[in-house]
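Anyone else keep sequences and structure tokens together like this?

Example one:
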Amino acid sequence: MKRTYFITGIIVAALSVTAVAASAKGSGGKMRGHHGPQINFEEVDTNGDGFLSQDELTAHAQARFDKVDTNGDGSLSAEELQASMEQRMKDRAQKGSEKMLERRDANGDGVLSPEEMQPKGDRTAKMFDRLDTDGDGKISKEEFEAAREKMRDGRKGKKRHGQPDSEQN
């Protein structure tokens, strides 16, 4: 009985993640922040009929569970969960580094030089000007800490990056 509730919970969580991902993808937006592994419709629609049945959803959730349950005992230990999360982080880091190389490797040599790592355009100057709130050409510790706090507040959902101050979440 507990296992049934557990599997149902996993299915609900997977569907929630999928719905949010589909919504973000469908609207042309990018998902930001923490989210679980992305699944696609075709992956779950195992019979290819263009619809998802309860059996397909259950089977997909069970397959994902089984993949994390590396010792096959029917439950997830802290070690198995940690290993799964670490693998996802490694995969994400790998994809991120490949994308960065693709975007910034101007000479195509497969490595990034300090010049290729520099911000493009006048980003550095704009960032400096934004931090130097009193316009004296230097960033004081107070200005630095104020910017850091503003960024921290933005991450907590108080203000999204790029929104005017009047537009709050």
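And example two:
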Amino acid sequence: MPRTLSAIVFDLDGTLIDSVPDLHAAGNLLLAEHGLYPIDLATARSFVGDGGQVFVRRALAERGVTLETAGLVAATERFIALYEAHASDRTVPYPDVPETLARLKDSGLRLGICTNKPERATHKVLALLGLDHLFEAIVGGDTLPVRKPDPAHPAAVLERLGVSPEAACMVGDNEHDSHSGRTAGMPFVLMTYGYARAPLDEIPADARLDRFRDLPDAIADLA
């Protein structure tokens, strides 16, 4: 029996926006404050996807520094402040994202975001990029006690949208998105241009897209 899709849950970084340049810059400002040498862009890219604290821990570890819990929490708060101050200096939506999101919303689909980025930073970057009006529900990495890859994270977006998993799909760029979305009961669409750490052909997906503008057709095929 065909399914009727009424909502899409999106990952943010690596799916809708290319935010690595600003995360990289904020990370290097933090490292400089600790008297440490910067990391390069490719290294920063490999640290994205698990939330701010993991990014900070990995960046510090890259320079041989390990902080105790209180120090790591403080460093993460400082990193987030540095990032939020320049959240859209270099960050841009991927090609065709604004237009395609508007097309999906205009078609009657309800859109939500499930991201490991802190919720306040998520709202800020979406507003700065002019995308905030498109989403009815946003659940960040610090909104709940859990975050991706826990399926309760995208499930919370569905709850806020008032939509069942059978009537939704998850769109993301990495293994965490795939696991959390599919385990929550949604089909998963993989965007291949993002920040995945696992080999793309090893990430379970119901559709794989190289271009965001192809998403409406993929959604139609899933339905």
